[in-house]
Fold this protein.
Amino acid sequence: MFETTIAGSLPKPGWLAEPNKLWAPWVLEGQALADAKRDATILALKVQEDAGIDIVGDGEQSRQHFVHGFLERIEGIDFAHKIEIGIRADRYRAMVPQVVGPLRLKGRVHQTEARIARAHTKKKLKFTLPGPMTIIDTIADRHYGDKVKMAMTFAELLNEEARELEKDGINTIQFDEPAFNVYMREVTDWGIAALHRAIQDLTCTTAVHICYGYGIKANTDWKASLGSQWTQYEQIFPALAKSKMKQISVECKNSRVPMKLLKLLDGKDVLVGSIDVASDKVETPEEVATVIQQAMKYVAKEKIFPCTNCGMAPMQREIAYAKLAALGKGAAYARQKFGRSARPVKRVRKAAKKKIKKQSRL
Ligand code: ZN
């Protein structure tokens, strides 16, 4: 119960990429870069295991950005001539590549890091891919002239890679759809259908992460403009509840999404964001347990998976690691406090002390 996981990315070490940045440039190239990515992936797994995270990931150490990491292996995309467009309904400007011809996978996209991760952890392993709607919002189209058609084509390619990832031993495949709270109508019109195409024939656990974005300034400004309660999800949660996705990842810590909206996800596993990635203040385990407790009012406790609000890529490593530790400890505390065979916390603490005493005698 209360199995913990992370939304996806972790900060990269300074010997791999420039720290505290999104789209951070690599500091190495060629074989040295490949080696550094491998080392950083193993390190990311170790850090999660030490923090008591149950369903771990590669920390997205091998990709520069959660969308473009996938696009780099697709034929029909011109990366040499990026253009600036407004993304997420013009919330911020980004330099994006252009679709210039029919899209086709050049080969495997994430095989190397998926296999490295699988070889170095016995824990359940999650892998993240960008969702079709978010991809088409982060690229310029010079070929298809129809964004739904283009999204469905990307969904087919995502599915191709996802089925291979499953064979590599990945237990959960998560699609990241931060665009899902920007284009609410399109989510129900075709966004969920595109996700269904992306998960076709998968037997592993499937998840979708929706969120109000990283803790960068463009996002925090936007969030400040949304009012005291963020009720956008009222429009899409009922459709997600009916979807084939097994898990839905939602930010809950310091979020203005009213917790009661989680009730609209009835029947789904909910990855409850209990760690704020937009703040450097490290949560206490008790604070994490409080978020879990609040979620329990609307979600069956067996369906709660404590998680981070979003990716941690732009954070300082020490802070991100401390937050992971708080997540692991907070979930353990919640298990003691609210679990099925919950024992009074005092007794648990006493038992732990006794154990320590016993060990110190050995
Ligand atoms: Zn996110």
Remarks:
- Residues 285 and 330 are 4 Å apart (CA to CA).
- The beta strands are 55-56, 74-87, 92-105, 124-130, 140-141, 172-176, 205-209, 247-251, 269-275, 304-308.
- The mean pLDDT is 91.
